[in-house]
Write a sequence for this structure.
């Protein structure tokens, strides 16, 4: 950014920062969020070509900030409505939805066991399984890519699943 342009935006923001934050705080009821949106508004304005030549730059800055605040409010309402409709609660350690360090370590160990079990599989079997599970490809897509029949893919994936079940002992506390 050219020094003159940078200096213009710096001056514009310094001159309007406090009033812009007060304006946004009334809409959002959160001073920190208002400061974030004020900075976002300036950044958005800086992306506009020749913004330093706007006739009503202050009004443009405030309108941009108001639009960003409105978007934030709408997003929050959609989230709250979704939580209310679905009955989703915020995760916390007491209800078991957040992994404790012990649970996380146990899960990593089991993941390592699965990886080791997959390495023991024949190449085609492992490839079919990974394409299906990690890249979410259909059996038909995998069959086309590998140049085999769909029934061969079905057999590969069944074999991989059975091998993983036999090889990996699942810890019931992780379920």
């Amino acid at each position: 950014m050219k020094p003159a342009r940078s200096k213009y935006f710096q001056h514009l923001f310094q001159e309007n920062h406090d009033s812009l934050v007060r304006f946004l705080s009334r809409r959002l009821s959160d001073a920190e969020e208002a400061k974030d949106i004020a900075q976002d508004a300036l950044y958005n304005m800086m992306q506009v070509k020749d913004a330093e030549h706007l006739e009503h730059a202050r009004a443009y800055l405030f309108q941009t900030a108001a639009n960003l605040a409105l978007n934030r409010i709408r997003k929050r309402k959609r989230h709250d409505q979704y939580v209310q409709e679905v009955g989703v609660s915020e995760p916390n350690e007491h209800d078991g939805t957040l992994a404790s360090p012990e649970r996380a370590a146990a899960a990593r160990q089991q993941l390592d066991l699965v990886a080791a079990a997959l390495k023991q599989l024949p190449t085609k079997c492992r490839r079919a399984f990974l394409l299906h599970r990690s890249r979410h490809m259909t059996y038909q897509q995998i069959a086309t890519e590998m140049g085999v029949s769909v029934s061969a893919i079905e057999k590969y994936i069944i074999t991989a699943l059975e091998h993983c079940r036999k090889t990996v002992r699942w810890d019931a506390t992780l379920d």
